[in-house]
């Protein structure tokens, strides 16, 4: 029986020498691989009490929406600044080179709701740390943070240490 990592393509020296790029597109391009990815992420939520799933643009949408559908939960978008039409809250955070800002609709998470945050990959953890802070500003509680893949060598889990974090696949390097 295949594992999720069997569907992940590894590209050495991209985008720079020494980096092993973990390509999620090969998971998505294979129906069995995509189903397995969602099923494995769903297993990470066994026994977790939560009300809503939130996903960060854009690959958090790809994995979060089918996960929400499979679990009968609503799905909330966390988008890049300027993409949402109604009143929003925003959070800026640092990237390796520069900064970024994400937003959520003010009414997307209700006070007291328990939220699972989903993304494809945890690297440095900055995007999801900002996403969790936005959810908490809206009065939501982070029930769990779930990733398909984790690059342990980039220490993103440390930024998310106060949350329950789980990954389907962990790669030791960067």
TrEMBL record:
NCBIfam families: apt, PRK02304.1-2, PRK02304.1-3, PRK02304.1-5. Belongs to the purine/pyrimidine phosphoribosyltransferase family. The gene is apt. The keyword Metal-binding does not apply. Coiled coil: none annotated. Its EC number is 2.4.2.7. Pathway: Purine metabolism; AMP biosynthesis via salvage pathway; AMP from adenine: step 1/1. HAMAP family: Aden_phosphoribosyltr (MF_00004). It holds the Pfam family Pribosyltran. Catalyzes a salvage reaction resulting in the formation of AMP, that is energically less costly than de novo synthesis. It is found in: Cytoplasm. Residues 47-164 form the Phosphoribosyltransferase domain. It catalyses: AMP + diphosphate = 5-phospho-alpha-D-ribose 1-diphosphate + adenine. One of its GO terms (biological process) is AMP salvage. It is an enzyme of class 2 (transferase). One of its GO terms (cellular component) is cytoplasm. Keywords: Cytoplasm, Glycosyltransferase, Purine salvage, Transferase. Its main location: cytoplasm. Homodimer. One of its GO terms (molecular function) is adenine phosphoribosyltransferase activity. This is Adenine phosphoribosyltransferase.
